[in-house]
Amino acid sequence: MSTQLVEGKVVIVTGGGGGIGRAIALEMARQGARVVINDIGAGLDGAGGSATPAEETQELIRELGGEAVISTDSVSEWESAQRIVACALDSFGRIDVVVNNAGILRDTIFHKMSPEDWLSVINVHLNGSFFVSRAAAEHFRQQQSGAYVHMTSTSGLIGNFGQANYSAAKLGIVALSKSIALDMQRYGVRSNCIAPFAWSRMTSSIPAETPEQKARVAKLQQMTPDKNAPLAVYLASEAAEHVTGQVFAARHNELFLFSQTRPVRSVHSAEGWTPQDIAEHGMPALKASFIGLDRSPDVFSWDPI
Ligand SMILES: NC(=O)c1ccc[n+]([C@@H]2O[C@H](COP(=O)([O-])OP(=O)(O)OC[C@H]3O[C@@H](n4cnc5c(N)ncnc54)[C@H](O)[C@@H]3O)[C@@H](O)[C@H]2O)c1
């Protein structure tokens, strides 16, 4: 195996100006890739914009002796997403990998969630992942190769409070990834998801007032974004040539493969069902396999550190 896993590849990392995206961009560069660092430098809620975060990542890559360019176009619109891919082609003449990582949060309990909270999060995460993926797809098809790595979240895979917009977008991304994997397998193109865990701007709003909360946050702070980067680089590389349509998670030094939804139990009635039959017989039988109202911390109930 080559010492550098993505040597010569051209990689777009959206949201590469900070957090997990920066860590992935740096590891891609360390492993021989040329990187398009895409970031609008927005606040956590998507407002504002600055080229500085992307420039800082570029500087860090240059310090490693790597090559990187900056794209400050938003993933959340079709036209600007086209420019992100055009940036890779103009700068490096090709595109091999898209890492859909850009993200914002607008957490609000469901009955208070505004259409603006909903649309802005769907636009960056779900629509943005489609727009950038789609902009690269024709190039991938023509060259008969390419890899997508999308960031999903246990908020969508399992659940969380106050994140209807984010959870829906993140589970939508899983279906998008699977669909891309199915449609583009014939062209040698792969698509996988990672549910990352990291102490970053996105998780820094976790309260740290009581001694217990402080102790928990101190542990969480050790879950640095770079722990997610090796899996992203591996999935982008030829070493993962048989890996597609899968959902993984990375949490500190743990890696997980996630299940995907399948029927868990069935009931059958030779005469068909009335609502009363369902109440009396069907549902009591199915109930044995109901899935609880779990949140991510209920399933990831042990600390990784
Ligand atoms: N941190 C975690 O524990 C965690 C958990 C699950 C999923 N994720 C996912 O991982 C990804 C990275 O998260 P992070 O924690 O590093 O967050 P972060 O806020 O540190 O980074 C997100 C980056 O995306 C950029 N961005 C926002 N809107 C953009 C747009 N329209 N176009 C281009 N760039 C844009 C921001 O400027 C920012 O630099 C996100 O998709 C997030 O949902 C993170």
UniProtKB/TrEMBL annotation:
<dbReference type="InterPro" id="IPR020904">
    <property type="entry name" value="Sc_DH/Rdtase_CS"/>
</dbReference>
<dbReference type="InterPro" id="IPR002347">
    <property type="entry name" value="SDR_fam"/>
</dbReference>
<protein>
    <submittedName>
        <fullName>SDR family oxidoreductase</fullName>
    </submittedName>
</protein>
<dbReference type="Pfam" id="PF00106">
    <property type="entry name" value="adh_short"/>
</dbReference>
<comment type="similarity">
    <text>Belongs to the short-chain dehydrogenases/reductases (SDR) family.</text>
</comment>
<dbReference type="InterPro" id="IPR036291">
    <property type="entry name" value="NAD(P)-bd_dom_sf"/>
</dbReference>
<dbReference type="InterPro" id="IPR051687">
    <property type="entry name" value="Peroxisomal_Beta-Oxidation"/>
</dbReference>
<dbReference type="InterPro" id="IPR057326">
    <property type="entry name" value="KR_dom"/>
</dbReference>
<feature type="domain" description="Ketoreductase">
    <location>
        <begin position="9"/>
        <end position="205"/>
    </location>
</feature>
